[in-house]
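hiii, so i know i said id send this last week but things got crazy w the move. better late than never?? heres the sequnce for the chain we talked about at the cafe, plus the structure i predicted for it. fair warning i was half asleep when i ran it
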Amino acid sequence: VYLYSRNDQGTPSDDTDDTWDFVRSLLPPDPSAVTGFGTRVAIDGGTILVGARLTSGKDEVYIYERNGADWTLLPPKVSPLLSKYTYKNSDVSNMAVSGDTIVIGQPEATGNFSTSGVISVYVKRGSDWSTLSPVETVLYADDGSFGDKFGQSIDIDGDRIIVGAPEKGDTGAVYLFEKGSTSWRTTATQHRLTINEPLTYELLGKAVTIDGNQVAVSATYNDVSTINGVVYLLDYSAGWDQPVQTTLIATDTRYTFFYGEHIDLSGHTLVVGNSSGSGERVGLYIYDGSSGWDSLIETELSLNPDAREYRSLFGSSVAINGNNIFTHASNGDPRSIGEVYVINRRPLPEISIEDASIVEGNAGTQSLQLTVTLTGNNLDLIPGNNVSFAFATSDGTATTAGNDYQSQTGTLSFDTSSGASSYTKTILINITGDTNPESDEYFYVSLSDPSVPVLLRKRKAKVTIENDDQINLNIDDLTVHSDAQTAHVTVSLNQEIDAPVSIDFTTVDQTAINTIDYQATTGTLTFNPGETSKTISIPVFNSSQIEAIKTLLVNLSNLQTTSSAVVLTDSQAEVTIVDADQPTLSINDVTVVEDSGTATITVTLNQALTSAVTVDYATADNTASSGSDYQSKTGTLTFNPGDTTQTIH
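okay and structure toks below
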């Protein structure tokens, strides 16, 4: 096994001068006992796994550990793994390592059914793999059956292991194991992943890969007639029972006979290998999901036409590390020596446009500025030192027909000759003001058609026009007699609105008491577009007793509307209940001749009462003057129980 290391030549920001330098060879500890050393390899940090077939016919996995700061100063520690454990006689199909955990796939081993397949999970004890034997746990599918080939494909990411069983039934199957709180042996949980489309003769699980909450699985016989493969990308961010599935099929299916034979996933990059080995021009498919897996960008890579040899097997294995994609062509060289290819993805320049907002104004137009940013390394190397793209506005709830804004299209260009890593441009859009109370509105400005390959990191900006015109919501006070039966309280908008408005209401006791003077009432009023008035109806009660004036309150709360124009300017009404049986006092007019000596004025109570009533009185000048025309007088009248009249002389 040959180990290489990337050398950035002391210029980590410039990948154009990087090389891959040979570090050392890894050899079996007992070469005479081994054949096929290096048929499988896996690496994570300072740990390398190497698969081998022993001369005894058994499979073995050797663990190589870096001894010191790098691989060159001291020979690595090496220790065999499988010869210590139960399933050492089973063929090893695949292996993976992540931190302190090693997973070995053994699809011919007996799990809960003969030759159903198992995976063996080994957890390191101590500071290395050689001093103490690691803890072994054997896992298998709960629904395993004969010949499933469970473990033929595996991958691990932290405490999650994904396993393919491509020959289970007619379709294949994929399983995911989670370690749980303590160990793989006692608390691991198992999920069988589901695909949201019909499966028939698919070999689902031929290849699997996991990165965080994203899983990719392949089915290399999706179309039996042409043996075209398919890859399913499953995002479990919302939970294992709520996957978001994206189905990937190569755009050009002429040469995808084994599309998905090998796959790897890292972040927003998915690599799919296609290794038919049948003389067709096989290739490598790269998908960029940085803008969302629902809008994938597919890149197909093949050998240089002059190097395309029959059965080159280019793309028959794939791996991703950072910006590096690895693949090989085992027969790519005319001498059938085989070649490894490292494809370095240089990050594309990125363009983004920022969202913006503006207060509408009452008249005229004002300019809204949107900022567009181009970022990236080595932008001065872009051909012609120019990046241009188109932009255009599009309606949302704000429309050009409604005179909310002025539509615009055009082209922006960046001159990148200065070698800076960031450039900005602005787009100006005219916004039209008005005095119409309305909801906040929005429209879009979108970027498209870049002149060179770039990543449109944010290609659409949302522009919000904030309304600054107000609609008032009020509630009116009310006076009602107790025999009216119902108090109708009015709630109103001072003008129409284009969006529904809801408001909650509730009554509150003051001197009026619920169930005695009125019936408590709660609820919600809804103003539909065009409506300006609503009524709250409150039952009021009348009694035969004479009572004082009483009051209650009606409170408004929880204004609900999509419009920012509505303001609750009066949230409380006072309802006054006047007793319909209330007695009244009145005083009569009188005319007398000047020489009569006395004017007698009658004060009348309209009904006899059971208790005394007093009222004060006093004269006041009009055209007659006190002292010369009459003698002023003040006093108090008392109506005793049963009295209905009293006089003032």
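btw Confidence is low (pLDDT under 50) at residues 306-310. thought thatd interest u
miss u guys!!
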